[in-house]
Amino acid sequence: MDAMDLKQLACAVAVAEERNFTRAAARCHIVQSALSHQIARLEAELGVALFERSSRRVSLSAAGEAFLPAARQVLDGVRQVREVVAAASGEVRGTLTVGSLSALANVDPVEWLARFHQRHPGVAARLYTGSSGDLLDHVRDGSCDVAFVGVSVDAGLGRVSSLSLCREQLVALLPPGHRLGDEPGLSLRHLSAEPQVDYAGGSAARCQTDEAFLRSGVERRVSFEVGSLDWITRIVRRGLAIALVPEACAAQLDGVISRPIVDAPCRAVHMVWSRSPSPAAQAFVALFRDGFVPAPQN
């Protein structure tokens, strides 16, 4: 397959993912007319239309739906060949995508990416936040190279490689002056009558707290569902609700107070990566293993 053929595939994948010829052309660093020409040549070679075009939108045809995963696989294969050859000559190149929880205190992904960039400047890095369940799915399907996740201590991680980093007890997060702030031996039963803020239903973090209340035999009242620790903190700080968050995270928050819970759930934090890692992912994991110092556990 020559370079022109690879360019056609890259253009078609860009259109399929962007659903827009203008954005796809910008992504491929060519003018829109040149992009359209590449797509037309590819469709002529395949003998089918890959896209259904209208004045308002671009969508994949049935043939296009079949084409897309195969095209991605080819492009990924070419990228992997280049990265493996570069790594064999002592140079790590390519891309590194790292995913992380937003509520993470004992590991700073930004710091580790900065260290990695100093050692491997030829690698383009990307960082995003998400829920543990989504991050694990992304590592399994190859769209994320490395992720930092938190799950129940007895939860399985599935088809990934992993390194256990720490265990974190959850504590009650309260606004200053809350009536439970001086309560000795705080338990989940004490918290059950309070309005609570938590992550969306079905997320790993939410399932962990829901299951903890269920095991204690008490119901909880979740009045606010949000997507980040920042939102949780803002809602608690204004006295709208209370929350359960990891102890190490609570210690870093301003304008709120935290209290231990005698029957609190505990989460396990892991770094996970693909069982078939790219050279960049292998280099990141090796760097982390060599330099990570676990925080003292209570």
Structure in words:
The protein contains eleven helices and eleven strands. The radius of gyration is 24 Å and the shape is elongated. The mean pLDDT is 87. The protein folds into three domains: 3-88, Arc Repressor Mutant, subunit A; 94-165 and 269-291, 3-Layer(aba) Sandwich (D-Maltodextrin-Binding Protein, domain 2), CATH 3.40.190; 167-267, Periplasmic binding protein-like II (D-Maltodextrin-Binding Protein, domain 2, 3-Layer(aba) Sandwich). It starts with a helix and ends in a 7-residue tail after the last helix. The longest helix is centred in the N-terminal third of the chain and has 27 residues, at 62-88. It is of the alpha/beta class and 298 residues long. Helix 5 (109-119) crosses helix 11 (279-291). Strands 3, 4, 5, 6, 9, 10 and 11 form a seven-stranded mixed beta sheet that branches. A two-stranded antiparallel ribbon has the order 1-2. It has a two-stranded parallel sheet with strand order 7-8.
